[in-house]
Amino acid sequence: MNKTRVTELLGIEVPVIQAGMAGGVTTPELIAAVSEAGGFGTLGAGYMEPEAMKESIREVKKQTSSPFGVNLFVPEEDKSTDNDTEEAMEALHPFHEELEMKDAVRPESPSVFYEQVEGALAETVPVVSFTFGVPPEDVVTSLKQAGITLIGTATTVEEALLNEEAGMDAVVVQGSEAGGHRGTFNGRFDKAAIGLMSLLPQVADHISIPIIAAGGIMDKRGMDAASALGAEGIQLGTAFVTVKESGAEAVHKGAILKATEADTVVTSVFSGKPARGLDNRFIQEMEGRKTLGYPLQNSLTKPIRKEAERQQNTEFMSLWSGQSPRLAQDVSAAEVIRNLIGPWG
Amino acid sequence: MNKTRVTELLGIEVPVIQAGMAGGVTTPELIAAVSEAGGFGTLGAGYMEPEAMKESIREVKKQTSSPFGVNLFVPEEDKSTDNDTEEAMEALHPFHEELEMKDAVRPESPSVFYEQVEGALAETVPVVSFTFGVPPEDVVTSLKQAGITLIGTATTVEEALLNEEAGMDAVVVQGSEAGGHRGTFNGRFDKAAIGLMSLLPQVADHISIPIIAAGGIMDKRGMDAASALGAEGIQLGTAFVTVKESGAEAVHKGAILKATEADTVVTSVFSGKPARGLDNRFIQEMEGRKTLGYPLQNSLTKPIRKEAERQQNTEFMSLWSGQSPRLAQDVSAAEVIRNLIGPWG
């Protein structure tokens, strides 16, 4: 995998995309370092207020003139009742107590998606990528009219087809190995947890737009395997969480660097949507307790995660990681990319 | 992947192993066809009585002089109580009723493992492979003294190391994509469901014995990817279930040939051990009901599966399948192997 339709589409040297991880990992420094090294940096703007997002975009542009993207979360309707909310708040009580915090306030999460789209247009980012669904037709139209390249996310063949039909220029095909949120938006999460060895060739047989493989890929071995299976680019998340330029908490980086392939689980307890991370007490003790959907559960647990970070207590943080933590390294972003390209790059 | 340590170890032309699927799929015709085509056929003897196993071995030898193997299940202690058994029998009542069958009889499953080992020694099979654990030291010693090559199964790095330490000559590294039983024997099943993209390179970094990749591999793309990730051989299950020589029920073959990558789940309700297969009513309706461990649950549900087969009712059969059913074909075993080798073989 060297020059592909993905390098051409994104105007980059090597088909390596840094995943748009939300929650502070994707600092302007990380994005710029990846893009400067010939890869493609992505701002994980899913959780960001539109103004903060625009400010980050401007900061990236100060640090690099190379292309980069912004990742947004496609919103879905909230169906929870007041009673659900009460129960979900009650479920978190023991954690507030243990961390010596005040109890939760009722979560509010008005969607900022359309404002984020406006922000991306205003700041003329070259690429916008989407997770949790295919964006509405009006969004696709306005972004395309502005000459912005669009990338979707799929976890099944059917989702890949929906992305192609919606006009995405390329699609990230996310295997079950991937850390962080599952992109599944059309079907059961457990059935859509498909390993890349299975998922890539089956998707490749059904769509024409370029495939970007995501999930467990950390080095040249994974890049070559993804290429053999039909991908024209790769997207790395965990491999960039532990690099020097990443905004991840030091204890999060440390936990990944110490972890094994059998330390992760998929859980909805942090955000309301299934995501893969290192197992810890919060995940274990929340089992069977009431949770809300995304983004309400995310709002509800945010104070706990923040306080746990302050206390450097990894038992109550969301330690997102894919299934290849043994391959994670404490290096620079450029070094991750150099290792991928190999001597023949 | 062409000539590797696996082809050398097993004395075969191409490093393609037909998985030792228990339950009647691995007919002498299938095993012989695979071995005659230059691959490596395996008798899935896990559930077999020693006499039937020996008879099958003799039948294979009539049909081919090429090497083949026998797969055995390493037994574990049963910890269920009489009360557990009563509850598990009761849980199956609605299915017996719907299929118009008599109720279950108390299951008995004395382990036949040591007799199977004796049988393999008596019939001088060239290779014995193991699932569900590392075989006891005395078994390893006696088989090795007889010049028999030993292959283990691992689903994590730790399990691969245990196989290497126990003296296995090679190890099947089973990804979460794989159909049928999970080989996990050291840790939680959910955490040990690791996609091959993650699992193979991490195992390759830790062991020296040759790796045989298993899970979702159906064609040359998968074979090349496995090779890039560090494997020296591949093991195919589902790809051989649907071939003409396979002993799988026609309705099972048909169900796989119609299925998509998002149709499988991992369930313990059929055998007492987690296994991947196509979702159906038995799996759905048994959710939350009492089950026993392997092999008791397997004995308990066998009459239901047999009766469902007789009625051609796939809703109550175990339709084992990996996550790549879209790549399954209704061809001969030799054609599967020819497709793998490719024009450069």
From TrEMBL, chains A, B:
InterPro entries: Aldolase_TIM, NMO. Keywords: Detoxification, Flavoprotein, FMN, Monooxygenase, Nucleotide-binding, Oxidoreductase. GO terms for biological process: response to toxic substance. It comes from the Bacteria. It catalyses: 3 propionate 3-nitronate + 3 O2 + H2O = 3 3-oxopropanoate + 2 nitrate + nitrite + H2O2 + 3 H(+). It holds the Pfam family NMO. Its cofactor is FMN. GO terms for molecular function: nitronate monooxygenase activity; nucleotide binding. CDD domains: NPD_like (cd04730). Belongs to the nitronate monooxygenase family. NMO class I subfamily. Nitronate monooxygenase that uses molecular oxygen to catalyze the oxidative denitrification of alkyl nitronates. Acts on propionate 3-nitronate (P3N), the presumed physiological substrate. Probably functions in the detoxification of P3N, a metabolic poison produced by plants and fungi as a defense mechanism. This is Probable nitronate monooxygenase. It comes from Salimicrobium flavidum.
